Amino acid sequence: MNARVASARVVLLLALNAGALAATGAAQAQSRSNMQQAAEANTQLGLAYMRQGDLQGGRDKIEKALGQDPRNATVQTGAGFLYDRLGDDRRAEQHYTQAVKLSGENPDTVNNLAVFLCRKGDKRKGEEYFLKAAANPLYRTPEVAHTNAGRCARADQRLDDADKHFRRALQLRPNFPDALWQLADLSLEAGRALQARGFLARYLEVSPESPATNWLGYRIETAMSDAEAAERYAMRLRGAYATSDETRNLLQLEQGGRP
Q1: 134-143 pLDDT per residue, tens
Q2: Are 69 and 56 a contacting pair, CB within 8 Å?
Q3: Of 41, 81, 48, 86, which is closest to residue 64 (Cα–Cα)?
Q4: Contact, 69 vs 39, CB < 8 A?
Q5: Which residues contact 182 (CB under 8 A, 6 or more apart)?
Q6: What is the mean pLDDT of the chain?
Q7: What is the pLDDT of residues 41-79, one digit of tens each?
Q8: In a domain, 243, yes or no
Q9: Does a structural domain hold residue 114?
């Protein structure tokens, strides 16, 4: 065999091997893509079962998804929702935390972990995650995250921190109803009835009245010693919202009891 023929055979073998490797790599990539799609589909099915109240069906689908693609942030988030519903807080937090890591700290995924921590875990840590989500320029509603951080701080009895977060939410969106409501209620709790009155007035400019607004208004005006204004709120409760919990609270208070 002359040298030219031998060289040509070597080149042909290398080309064949390269082609085989490329085909193998493409097949592996396609297999990974298929597993990812199957895992995400099973996650969505699992969440649909959970919304219908079928927790066992949801668990079967989501655990199958975890077996298919455990390094998928969507799957890990679904598992967090599942174990949260099942009351397994330890596993829920593990899955939410893993989802944050796998997502590259996607702000929506960070927000999911923050909600869980504020509700069932470390409120201060949940507050920090809300602020991390709010600081991400890709997060579409930072005012919501700041308001939720305030809720965390308030639930942790850190009223000054809560006040700061609610006010930051209003800096971002001055007519954000949830932050206005929280500041009205918090200001009354902190003994600042005049501020509470102002925040409630701003809230009512962007949101309809309700039993809750009339009950808060009644308590604000009572704290302000404005009996006439307090009675107007009381009349609305007794007239338009006679069967509400807030009206029952009012009646108990008027009868000398505690609401």
Answers
A1: 999 999 999 9
A2: no
A3: 41
A4: yes
A5: 147, 150, 151, 154, 162, 166
A6: 91
A7: 999 999 999 999 999 999 999 999 999 999 999 999 999
A8: no
A9: no
Cβ neighbours, 10 Å, residue 235:
12
Taking the C-alpha atoms of residue 134 and residue 139, their distance in angstroms, rounded to an integer, is 6
- Cα 74 to Cα 98: distance, rounded to the nearest angstrom: 10
For every residue of 126-176, DSSP letters joined together read HHHHHHHHHH-TT-S-HHHHHHHHHHHHHHTT-HHHHHHHHHHHHHH-TT-
Q: Which domain holds residue 72?
A: 39-104
Q: What's the domain count of the chain?
A: 1
CA 70/CA 78 separation, integer angstroms:
11
Kindly give the residue spans of alpha helices, DSSP state H, lying in 72-140.
73-85, 89-102, 107-120, 123-135
Six-digit token string for 16: 């064949």
Instruction: Pick the closest to residue 81 from 99, 103, 69 (CA basis).
Output: 99
Total number of residues shown for the chain: 259
Q: Are 234 and 218 in contact (CB under 8 A)?
A: yes
> What is the domain-level CATH number for residue 47?
1.25.40.10
- Residue 65 and residue 70: Cα distance in Å, rounded? 7
The pTM (predicted TM-score) of the whole model is: 0.81
